[in-house]
Design goal:
The chain is built from eight helices and 29 strands. With 449 residues, it is an alpha/beta fold. A hairpin with a 4-residue loop joins strand 21 and strand 22.
């Protein structure tokens, strides 16, 4: 994988030209990520293993569903002429010639003046033209209309004797026609479909035990910082709980990935390099959070800035500044023998999560082979008590609550405000050339839920 620092996508930048002083636009950084990440190779998986994966090929129906005419009710299979004019005062009395159960391969034939007791899903027997629900009959008991079908073991009269039918039935009444769901040769599913429970059910229904998909990408999330403590442990002075790795692992799973969370790594470059190398065996994408700025303990930058792929000159991770708020410091590149993509996100919780939504989620969706990798965006009216301010030259992403065509800011602009993020369902986008947005203005909104 060639170094992303040496590519120029041809877009305008706040600071033009490659190099450490270049200020990348949000779009250019995203383009750089998506031009490097490639969809995973297809594999054949058993149906349940394919849940959440993206279908590679169109699936054609090999047999019609249902494959035969069958009953949609428990009742009696009859000929239409035999029940014409039937009423409670003058019921049609038919000879019951047998039972037809679901899965039965040799159903009895129904002749003139006859009926067969039939169960839901059972094939319509030869000679029958309709099904009368059992509630329209005496159930073979001779005691007036019944409420339902009795179990065969409790109803020795079921397949014998006579049944009184109190209502007429039109031809094909309560009959599911062969191919009424899908017909042989129809396209059941289109390439690019994410396989959820209904799609897997359809594949099973048409006899497919395996399916060719792009697998769900494996994403390893790793946070850095000696101050980070696992939740449920005791905090010492100067320590905080590690929330980023939990939020990003959950976000990766929400995006469709199989995500693994690695406990926080201390601020030691060698330890970090070793941990990342150990994790590469199970990663299609690595995500780190923290340690990408210009501080003395920014360990990710120290550990990875000069690490390249030995067999491909120019590989490694490029650390850059983006014209955005929050999330100015970012890192992107590849690492390890398989050139595994790595995105290094800032450590402030909001910066980290916003960066994930803008860059990591689209990368995951690209690995999955999805045609649309981005969150939906809409325009909405800004509901605020006063104008929103934004730094010149930066694209700002503010947490917001969106509903019914309007969006209201949630919390302040601080990149540490985790509680506000938890109550937001959208990001309000303020463009680079806008320094103030008045209430009532139409703004772009990225929908998060």
């Amino acid at each position: 994988m060639s170094s992303s620092a040496h590519r120029d996508t041809g877009h305008d930048h706040a600071t033009s030209g490659p190099g450490p002083d270049r200020l990348w636009s949000v779009q250019d950084h995203l383009d750089d990520v998506l031009s490097t990440v490639r969809p995973l190779d297809p594999i054949e998986l058993n149906l349940l293993d394919a849940q959440g994966c993206v279908l590679v090929d169109d699936v054609t129906v090999p047999l019609s569903l249902p494959p035969f005419d069958n009953s949609s009710m428990d009742g009696y299979a009859v000929r239409v002429t035999d029940v014409a004019g039937a009423s409670e005062e003058f019921p049609a009395v038919l000879e019951v010639v047998g039972d037809v159960a679901a899965g039965q391969t040799d159903p009895v034939a129904v002749g003139p003046g006859q009926a067969a007791r039939i169960m839901t899903g059972a094939p319509l027997p030869p000679g029958a033209e309709a099904v009368v629900p059992v509630e329209w009959t005496d159930g073979g008991l001779g005691e007036g209309p019944v409420a339902g079908m009795r179990a065969r073991s409790l109803a020795p009269e079921g397949a014998e004797g006579h049944v009184h039918v109190y209502r007429p039935a039109e031809e094909r009444a309560h009959v599911r026609a062969r191919g009424s769901d899908v017909r042989s040769g129809d396209r059941a599913l289109t390439a690019g479909t994410v396989l959820g429970p209904p799609q897997i059910g359809l594949l099973a229904a048409i006899g497919r035990g395996t399916v060719r998909v792009r697998p769900r990408p494996r994403v390893v999330v790793l946070s850095t910082g000696s101050e980070l403590v696992q939740p449920d442990e005791q905090l010492a002075s100067g320590q905080i709980y590690d929330s980023n790795s939990f939020a990003l692992t959950a976000a990766a799973r929400d995006a469709g990935a199989i995500a693994y969370r690695v406990g926080a790594v201390s601020d030691d470059a060698e330890t970090l390099r070793s941990t990342i190398e150990d994790q590469l065996v199970r990663a299609d994408l690595m995500v780190t959070t923290g340690g990408v700025s210009v501080g003395a303990y920014d360990v990710v930058k120290e550990a990875l800035a000069h690490v390249g792929d030995e067999d491909e000159p120019g590989g490694g991770v490029d650390f850059r500044k983006l014209a955005m708020q929050p999330g100015k410091p970012q890192g992107f590149g590849s690492i390890g023998p398989d050139h595994t993509p790595l995105l290094a996100l800032p450590g402030n919780p909001v910066s980290s999560y916003v960066s994930f939504e803008l860059f990591v989620r689209p990368a995951i969706r690209t690995l999955m082979g999805l045609p649309d990798v981005h969150r939906p965006t809409v325009t909405a009216s800004l509901a605020a008590d006063k104008a929103l301010t934004s730094p010149k030259g930066r694209r700002q992403f503010l947490r917001g609550s969106h509903a019914d065509g309007s969006v209201a800011p949630v919390g302040g602009s601080g990149s540490h405000l985790v509680a506000a993020l938890a109550h937001a369902n959208a990001l309000i986008v303020v463009p680079e050339d806008t320094e103030s947005v008045e209430p009532g203005t139409q703004v772009e909104v990225v929908l998060l839920g």
